[in-house]
Design a protein that fits this description.
The complex is a heterodimer of chains A (about 170) and B (about 550). Chain A has a single domain (about 10-165), classed as TIM Barrel (Alpha-Beta Barrel). In chain A, about 25% of the residues lie in helices and about 20% in strands. Chain A contains 5 helices and 8 strands. Chain A has helices at about 40-50, 90-100, 120-125, 135-145, 160-165, and strands at about 10-15, 20, 25, 40, 55-60, 75-85, 105-110, 130. Chain A is globular. Chain B is about 35% helix and about 20% strand. In chain B, the strands form 4 sheets. Chain B has a 5-stranded antiparallel β-sheet with strand order 1-2-5-4-13. Chain B has a 5-stranded antiparallel β-sheet with strand order 3-14-15-12-11. Chain B has a 5-stranded mixed β-sheet with strand order 6-7-8-9-10. In chain B, helix 6 (about 220-235) crosses helix 8 (about 255-270). The chains are: A alpha/beta (about 170), B alpha+beta (about 550). The interface of A and B includes residues 153, 161 and 165 of A.
Chain lengths: ~170, ~550
């Protein structure tokens, strides 16, 4: 069930339960962008993306204002949303703003202290991949998807809220 | 009252299945207590000083007689034969075994109840006026809106890990009985929509809420709340648990700037996807009709004769009934503050009696008030004496509603791991000191609120007399606050005089009250009014033994 304090090495899993290799590399701010699939810090992305070509990953920390990335959406393929502790829920708002306000259609990945008991909420907010310290990442996704069929409110996953099911158009 | 459809039933069943699985893993040792903690806290299960405590949501304080009987069953079967009604209009059972919780939740689900979001840093049970739908001063019924918020906030994916817990209160009357100015968000229903107050709260830094929006249309309530919560979720402090409530954010930004940010966020939202349509609001409203009132011939002379013959009844009618929207009905408050017993506690037998009373005299409906009493919102005046006798035979006829012995007290050091001092024994001592009915009535309306620590679960900041338990070098001490109130003229009490020992408090209150009786202009000037007229300092000296 919950994998708090887990010692398992993080594995990348998609919201469909596919476990795959992570091709992205998080760069230090003084590191030259010499690799494909480079993940930039938020500050660096805001300062440098304007002058860069290609598509990048960006690591967002909880306090970062994701809307500062608005001008660069076309240059971003991946946004890693950091969860330094599972109790810090700012990343949920970050993901919904990306999907529903900024129209971001790239990958939104949860990294850090990500628990299988939170995957359901994360998927609803627009996350579609997870770096998960879980013995069975695919099983964790399956579990999260099995919990609730409906939701009372609309979010970023396209699920119709219960009121829409009660009053079909 | 609201009734579940297949969607509501499925939602609770899914949560119960999830939690049952988590409990089984904990019992088998697959989860440590550390790992289990965040999971049980999502479901109202706390580990207290001596046992698990289960907090069950009573949505906006509204209960059917059947639900009350289920509480009686839980108290009898799984607890020590009593339950504790809380200031959040919920009920807590203090002696629960972990292994029993899945079955308790199943018993609750059978009567459309649950423990979802009664703990954790999420949106908690919305509270409201205990006389909603019945009170004569009501502008509009807050219950359908509270139910709309209940559904929207249940498992809200974005707001499950807020900086801190989040409490919303609604009133639809001119008198504020829901204490909306000391809630994270307080909603006042008017004939032009909602007035929205934000940033109220108690705890160690009390604040009164600020009006940030007037005339918000009900159809836009959810999207506006979503914007308000998002600004809080993103910018509320998370570095210090004591500065994490929205009141700190609103006070740091200033209410105007917070309001501006909410408007800005609101404009980015796809409101049509968030706000339930008119048809859904109408559907929810259809569950809150007026009861099918019995046309019982009411004989005013007979009531007068009963009052004249039975002084206890006369006093109970005077103190425990409130004007109803219909002339031939009243709302009745059943006081859970008998002399010498813990405020808000009821035995299983008493719960059954209250359920029976609701069925016989109250159209099957009950409410829990934030003052920790039980209300029958609609009672025909013709039935009052029969109701009184039923309650009186079962120790439920305390006639002290709104009086000095109708205290709010938190569980305190007897149960709570956060407390610095005991609350319940002090409340018992005070109720014994002021047990004389004649004296209590002479003193008139007076609210004492007791918290066993600075977290203020006993609402001491807004008591006419607030009592705060503190720990001073290993000894329990109590500070006295004067002048607080939680109504439409909300104000925060101020610490007056020096701290007192538990033994000294009842005598100090006695001196305080005597001084008030000497100073008041006449019996219509309430304690809080006299304090307002003369100032707190005029009363400080009375708190201490003359040298």
């Amino acid at each position: 069930m919950s994998q708090l304090n887990s010692s398992h090495a993080p594995q990348l899993v998609s919201d469909q339960g596919e476990v795959r290799a992570n091709g992205w590399t998080l760069l230090a701010d003084d590191e030259a962008i010499g690799v494909d699939q480079a993940v930039l810090s938020f500050a660096r992305a805001v300062n440098e993306l304007d002058g860069l070509n290609g598509r990048y990953g960006v690591r967002i920390a909880p306090g970062d204002d994701v809307r500062l990335l608005t001008p660069f959406m076309s240059k971003i393929a991946l946004i890693e949303v950091a969860f330094p502790g599972y109790r810090d829920g700012r990343g949920y708002s970050t993901a919904r703003i990306l999907r529903q306000d900024l129209g971001f259609d790239g990958e939104i990945r949860a990294v850090g202290d990500v628990l299988r008991d939170q995957l359901f909420w994360m998927m609803r907010c627009g996350f579609d991949s997870f770096l998960l310290k879980d013995a069975d990442p695919a099983g964790a996704i399956k579990y999260a998807r099995s919990l609730y069929i409906n939701a009372y409110q609309s979010a970023a996953d396209g699920l119709k809220p219960v009121w829409a099911l009660r009053h079909p158009a | 009252m609201y009734q579940y459809d297949q969607f509501d039933h499925a939602m609770v069943a899914a949560r119960n299945a999830e939690f049952k699985d988590q409990v089984e893993r904990r019992l088998k040792g697959e989860l440590s207590e550390d790992q289990f903690k965040p999971l049980r806290l999502m479901n109202g299960l706390y580990l207290q000083l001596h046992a698990y405590m289960l907090r069950i949501a009573v949505p906006y304080g509204v209960l059917s007689s059947r639900q009350m009987r289920t509480f009686a069953h839980i108290a009898r079967t799984y607890d020590r034969d009593f339950g504790h009604f809380t200031t959040r209009q919920n009920i807590q059972f203090n002696w629960i075994k972990l292994a029993d919780t899945p079955q308790i939740l199943e018993d609750l689900a059978a009567v459309e109840m649950h423990a979802i979001q009664t703990s954790g840093n999420c949106i908690r049970n919305t509270t409201t006026d205990q006389f909603a739908g019945a009170a004569r001063d009501e502008i509009d019924d807050p219950r359908p809106w509270a139910e709309l918020i209940r559904q929207w906030s249940t498992f809200h994916p974005e707001f499950t890990f807020l900086p801190r817990k989040f409490k919303i209160a609604i009133t639809g009357a001119t008198r504020d009985r829901a204490a909306i100015r000391v809630h994270d968000i307080g909603l006042q229903l008017t004939d032009k929509g909602f007035d929205v107050y934000v940033g109220g709260g108690m705890g160690r830094t009390p604040h009164l809420g600020h009006l940030i929006k007037s005339g918000l249309p009900g159809e836009k309530l959810l999207s506006y709340l979503e914007a308000a919560l998002r600004v809080y979720n993103r910018y509320g402090r998370r570095d210090n648990i004591y500065k994490a409530r929205i009141k700190i954010l609103v006070s740091a930004l200033g209410p105007q700037e917070y309001a501006r940010q909410v408007e800005e966020e609101w404009a980015t939202l796809d409101q049509a996807q968030i706000d339930a349509p008119h048809a859904e609001i109408a559907r929810i409203k259809s569950f809150f009709p007026q009861p099918a009132y019995a046309d019982k011939a009411f004989d005013a002379a007979a009531l007068d004769r009963a009052k004249a013959a039975d002084a206890g009844f006369a006093r109970w009618v005077r103190n425990n009934t409130l004007a109803h929207r219909r002339d031939d009905h009243v709302s009745v408050t059943i006081s859970l503050k008998p002399t010498g017993l813990p405020p808000g506690d009821a035995s299983s037998a008493q719960m059954d009696v209250m359920a029976d009373a609701a069925d016989r005299f109250g159209y099957g409906e009950l409410r829990v008030s934030h003052e920790q009493n039980i209300i029958l919102p609609h009672v025909a005046k013709a039935d009052l004496y029969d109701l009184y006798r039923l309650l009186d035979q079962n120790g439920l006829s305390s006639a002290n509603v709104g009086k000095i012995t109708d205290m709010i007290a938190c569980p305190g050091l007897d149960y709570c791991s956060l407390a610095n001092a005991r609350s319940i024994p002090l409340a018992q001592d005070i109720s014994q000191r002021f047990a004389d009915a004649e004296l209590t009535d002479k003193i008139g309306d007076l609210q004492i609120k007791i918290s066993g620590c600075i977290n203020a679960c006993g609402h001491h900041h807004v008591g006419h007399i607030g009592i705060l338990g503190v720990d001073k070098q290993g000894e329990e001490f109590y500070q006295i606050l004067l002048g607080g109130r939680a109504d439409e003229q909300a104000a925060l009490g101020v610490i007056t005089g020096k701290g007192l020992s538990a033994e000294a408090v009842p005598a100090a209150l006695e001196r305080l009250i005597k001084l008030y009786l000497d100073l008041r202009t006449d019996e219509t000037e309430r304690f809080i009014d006299t304090v307002g007229r003369l100032g707190r300092d005029a009363f400080a000296g009375a708190l201490h033994e003359p040298a």
